[in-house]
Amino acid sequence: MQAEQDDHKLDTLELSNGGFHPLFASTDGDIVLGSKDRIHFRVHSYTLKTTSGWFRAMYSLPQKTATTADLPPETIYVDEDSTTLEGLLRMVCGLSIPRLDSYDIIEPILHAAEKYDMPGPMSIVRALVMTPPLLSDPLRLYAIACRYGWQDEAMMSSRYTLTLNLHAPEHRLTLQKLGTDALLNLFQLHHTRREALRRRLDDPPFVSDGGDTSCSNCGSLVDYHTWRELKYVIIMEMDGRPLGDTVCTPGLLEWPAARACWSAKCINCDRVLYDKTLTMRVIRECIEQLPTTIDPLPPPYPPPILPRGASE
Fold first, then answer.
1. Which residue, 257, 212, 205, 256, is CA-closest to 231?
2. Which stretches in the chain have pLDDT values below 70?
3. 157, 145 in Cβ contact below 8 A?
């Protein structure tokens, strides 16, 4: 129903306004851009030349002679739809920008801005990508930030991806959009957090589960299998949610493996084997010390090769 209403509005716009978008229908404009859905936008060539490297290069070519200058401007048809073209032109023409609260809106605008070499719209979108509506999908934000070399945004969004299981099938399409370096950096961050915590759980003050050891109170042999099982559950939780915020609470309070561990006692002296408070505190401190973002991105382009003697 909504799609039919939108089509009706589009048809009404074309019939009532000669196919021109109402915000870009002034006869003062000397160039007409046509979207792929048949909506036309009349703008000033000066605006396009000063905001777009692509149009600036186009207008550096020989133009119409004076004898044909009074003819109606030729329409330049582009690949973008009217929604994308409207958002792009609003930004470069100083009009109020549209709502940029969806990746389905900003991704086509970014693609068009890159295509036409328009740094202005890209900077506007970049300033808004860290707002709550877009932060709700950190993996898609990470893909965009890496695509355009936005280092701060890439590092911050990588932190927000720590709540995600990258192996879940719903993330596959987004991960396929990543370049090799961006993909490996993200997987390395998630993997490093899990493995660093796994190694730390084998160091003091944690007990060794490599075999039978003696009770610190009575010296009798003790099998620390409950701690070994709890470590396995902790690492699996970190694998599915590398942020680790669910390990201590509710994990170490509610997991069956955790309850079995805290209730384990020496069969000889009946002494509790594990200090629950100390163990939870140290695990929490270990998680807080883990890396939280990817390493800084490399420069998007290699440094220029200077001719011999240019830097002398």
1. 257
2. 1-18, 63-71, 209-212, 298-312
3. yes
